[in-house]
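Thread amino acids onto this structure.
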């Protein structure tokens, strides 16, 4: 074991959402709801939904390919793959193991993390811990969800909120001028588990005709309780993570907050006395709440839209089922460069044919954009 703690940073980021979308008019057509209510109360305008039967690992794969391409890391160089999700392909094997096979990665470690909307930060912190121990050098962390597989589309208080999608990052040991993952706080309050949960499908209520008949395989939530706790805990975490790193909130350039409801983001930013327009990035209007994918999708789009720049100090904040809540502090280290979708297509083709041989990056390119 090597105990040298080296600098760790995100060297590639990618995202994927399925093509099919459901806009608010869709819900107006069969539920007692309106575009006005959904927009005003949640901020969601549309969400992407998979074709029925599409597994999570397909979404993870698409996002992972783009993150790997940007970092210039080949799948067989990966030492660890972690997928954060509440909607795995199956309970076991883990989606991370399936993803490993789809990517054509070697026999690296692979496992899923179940921490709901906080899963991505939990996974990042575990990955960083393994890197700090010297056990691994190149890690793929994915947040990916097929929320449409566990949503009751007749429950208007839930179905309008969620969407499907995936985001992925590659972590490497790099010099500090390429950014740094600085700190994490991961917390949970299991006493309040049943204000946001799925009742059946595990050992407590194994799947049966009864559980299906009683609609126990879909998300249940006491939305208003979750709403208030989300604002309280995420605002507290933002203060704590800045203070314990000798920073003030004014030192922070970007806050990416779990995209659950635009009013939650407003609540957190206002509690922190930070300007929402300039210091937060939001894409809930386009994707809805994508649970563990929400943060990587938000960071990805902030970067793509040039709102997150090399050298920026960023806090990411999450809150979700568990209850879990988490924060991470980082300095962003990737330069936004011109988009190049050809190289990404080349990488995918090569992986599909199991022919990846160029660890330094397909076509010798590094840090190309992943937006295709
Ligand atoms: O990612 C995990 C964490 N999840 C979250 O953070 C979600 C947190 N919660 C929320 O975002 C909000 O609580 C909701 C969007 C879920 C609900 O908004 P709210 O302002 O808290 O509304 P509410 O639950 O207090 O309900 C107010 C009213 C109710 O009607 P009555 O009882 O006042 O007649 C609801 O039935 O709004 C009604 N309502 C709707 N009306 C039209 C709930 N959903 C809808 C809807 N369309 N889609």
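Threaded sequence (372 positions):
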């Amino acid at each position: 074991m090597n105990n040298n703690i080296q600098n760790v940073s995100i060297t590639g980021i990618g995202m994927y959402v399925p093509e099919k979308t459901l806009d608010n008019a869709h819900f107006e057509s069969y539920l007692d709801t309106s575009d006005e209510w959904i927009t005003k109360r949640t901020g969601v305008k549309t969400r992407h939904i998979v074709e029925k039967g599409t597994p999570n690992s397909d979404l993870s794969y698409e996002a992972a390919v783009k993150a790997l391409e940007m970092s210039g890391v080949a799948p067989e160089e990966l030492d660890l793959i972690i997928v954060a999700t509440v909607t795995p392909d199956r309970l076991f094997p883990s989606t991370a193991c399936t993803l490993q096979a789809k990517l054509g990665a070697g026999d690296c470690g692979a496992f899923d993390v179940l921490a709901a909307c906080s899963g991505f930060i939990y996974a990042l912190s575990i990955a960083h811990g393994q890197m700090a121990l010297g056990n691994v050098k190149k890690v793929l962390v994915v947040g990916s969800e097929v929320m449409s597989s566990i949503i009751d589309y007749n429950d208007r208080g839930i179905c309008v909120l969620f969407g499907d999608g995936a985001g992925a990052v590659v972590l490497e040991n790099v010099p500090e001028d390429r950014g740094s993952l600085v700190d994490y706080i991961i917390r949970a309050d299991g006493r309040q588990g049943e204000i946001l949960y799925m009742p059946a499908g595990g050992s407590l209520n194994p799947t049966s005709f009864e559980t299906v008949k009683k609609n126990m395989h879909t998300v249940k939530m006491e939305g208003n309780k979750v709403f208030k706790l989300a604002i309280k805990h995420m605002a507290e975490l933002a203060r704590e993570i800045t203070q314990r790193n000798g920073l003030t909130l004014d030192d922070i350039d970007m806050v990416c907050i779990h995209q659950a409801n635009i009013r939650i983001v407003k609540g957190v930013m206002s509690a922190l006395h930070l300007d929402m327009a300039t210091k937060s990035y939001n894409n809930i209007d386009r994707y809805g709440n994508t649970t563990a994918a929400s943060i990587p999708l938000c960071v990805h789009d902030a970067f793509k839209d040039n709102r997150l720049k090399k050298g920026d100090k960023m806090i990411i904040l999450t809150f979700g089922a568990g209850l879990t809540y988490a924060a991470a502090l980082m300095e962003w280290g990737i330069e936004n460069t011109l988009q190049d979708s050809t190289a990404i297509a080349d990488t995918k083709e090569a992986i599909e044919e199991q022919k990846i041989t160029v660890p330094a990056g397909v076509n010798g390119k590094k840090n190309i954009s992943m937006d295709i």
